[in-house]
Sequence to fold (767 residues):
Amino acid sequence: MSAGATIALLGQPNSGKSTLFNALTGLRQHVGNWPGKTVEKKEGSFSYGGKEYRVADLPGSYSLSANSDEEVITRDFIASGEADVVCILADSSQLQRSLFMLADYAGINVPCFLLLNMADVAEDQGKTIDAKTIEKKLGIPVVPFSATDIRSYDSFYKTLEKALSKDSRINVEELAAQYGSIKGYQDICDLIPENVLEGYSPMWLAVKVLEKDEVVIAKLKNALDAETFGRIEEAARGTNGAVATGGCKFRWIDELLGETVSAGNNTVRLSRLDRIYTNKFWGKAAVILTVLLGLIASFIPALPLMGVGEAVLAVKAPVMNALYSIGCPEFLILIVGDVIIQSFSYIFKMLGFVFGVTLVFGLLEEVGVMARISYVFDNTMGKLGLQGKSVMPFLVSFGCTMGGAAGARVIDNWGQKVLTIALAWAVPCGAAWATIPMLASIFFGPGAVGVIVAILFTMLVHMWITAKVFGGQLVKKEDRYGMIMELPPYHKPKWGALFRYVLGRTKETFIRVTKVILLVCGIFWLLSYSPSGNGGILYSIGVAIEPVTRIFGLPWQLFLSYVASAVGKEGAVGVISALYSGGSYGNAFTQAMSGGADTSNLSSLLLANVTKPEALAFIFAMTFNMPCVVALAATFQETHSAKWTARIVLYYTVVSLILAFIAYHIGMLIW
Amino acid sequence: MEELLELLKDGHARTLELLASELGTDTDDIKRKLEYLENMGIIRKVCLSPCGAGKCAECAMHSGAAPCKGCLPENGFKNMGEMWEVDKGLIAENRG
Ligand SMILES: Nc1nc2c(ncn2[C@@H]2O[C@H](COP(=O)(O)OP(=O)(O)O)[C@@H](O)[C@H]2O)c(=O)[nH]1
Fold:
């Protein structure tokens, strides 16, 4: 058997190279590594027409630029002349895209032919491809092919022989004309002598110089005298580089294909919903409305757990009675009743909202609305001096501010990162979303919805003002490129996965919240406990500071809860619970003992002691207070700046008290 | 492709569909150009998953320090589509 040619297979990943290679060589293959690299080298052989052919399966890569080892290995191997002919694979089902490899190859002086693989797929799509016309324009053999179809291999062998006998090379005239329109191209091309680097034409090299291909530039520097190289560098300066050359390649592909590919019209039309969301005027309103409706809707799944919370409270009086009857010390009875049972009642109510909010937001994400939200707000982010991707940390902050701070890591500019975190603090986190609706529904009943709307609105204004306050020092207003987005199609949610996530999250929150509330409630209850009935240490401190806290509309109990909310918003509820029941413990105890279950209900206790304006002031103060100590730590960790972390804390403390003041006075006007 | 980048200069986000209609082409054409620009490092995919789902190098880098468990859907947001941002430094350098 006489020795035939060596064939190299070149194609982008998934073009079907391996399928072809395996079908050609069968068991006659050998896998090794390219010298000095960890890139796999596959070689094999087959015989056809009495000749023995060698095949090299080159590593799959997008193009022949020096972006990766694979690409450099591939082009060096081809240019070295080791292969007698290169078989370039393209995907017939998407020729406009997959012919890029061919366009990047054009200019390498090695014979080649083009295999339009996946012809069966293109046919199924209703595409017809006129390979003959493409062949005429290209000057190399072109053949439709199906690597998975054994019957099409005959045409492969025939085309291979044709390419070898004709020594066929790509006609690059049109492509060179395209490149000619790029500023600097012709100068560089004229400066590069023929055959300066084996296998590559001056056109190909000039294009790589424009694309800032470091490997090619280094080789040219070696091969050329300093003066010529200097002039090349000079000509390449200030050009549009890879953007321009890429554009030329795509235009060349389009002209090459011209009328040769006929395909069904595949223009995509926006769904009715997307026409609203992506509308310049209605988009933002639609998104805000969606979020709002989502939050309101989250009350519905919250209801059952709210009921559980109420039920827990109902056992308080019987349990306390039972403990009394077995002779338990008064102190213990009060701990069980006022701290433990009371806390769990609140914990369950809060969990209701955690469950509801998580479910609704998870659902929005699953169906694809979240993606639209970040799209709609991209431009707003720009106006705040931020990148579009800052939207993500904000969305995450609805769940957890720490997550938001960690999420800000994807922002590489330090100033923008700090500003993003500073703004993320204004987004009420999961713990706040558990507390706000619960407190609001105690005080305002159905009006709680109004409070939520007001909180969201305040959040937006807060973020806007905060961006203005800090923006000047953190971000420079500069030209900014908009993002490009591929919106996911709307799809039905996967309920199983969604509920697993929601339940998992509710469980996590349950554990965390239980720890915090029991601890905080216990400590504050102890500090306010006084058997003598004069109110304990906290009472003395509280009464002393009350003249100041009243300015912000906060009685001392609420002010202390506000302070505690800086540790963790869940804690605020524990403190309220402890202080109000602890302070009036004597009363509550006697009434509980006498079977008056009603007074053991903290809600009525709160309603009796706190006015609506005070409650409103507290809700705003707590919501816009610093999120929690963990978020504080995360902020410091991400910003690496004690100064900025301190600034943000101070700013949020002041702003939350101002908001409380405003809310209180607005409340006074209403009630 | 110069036109594509030129359009984005106004700072507005665009969907593939919007880009296609503004440039008088189809989304397949936009997709292949994005693929090219991404391969050349002129634009990059935005990593959306702060949990370190390992979807991209950036995520893998900080996968150790995921935010508190249960804050995000497992593996972060999944149905957010794809987003690309323009690497400004590279463009400035090319423009000289
Ligand atoms: N329908 C069809 N599928 C193909 C054809 N050629 C390859 N494939 C499939 O496309 C996928 C990618 O092929 P592979 O050879 O692994 O691509 P490589 O990455 O270039 O090596 C595999 O699932 C193949 O079975 C073809 O001509 N027609």
About this structure: The pocket of guanosine-5'-diphosphate is lined by residues A 11, 13-19, 60, 117-118, 120-121, 146-148 (CB under 6 Å). Residues 49 and 80 of chain B are 10 Å apart (CA to CA).
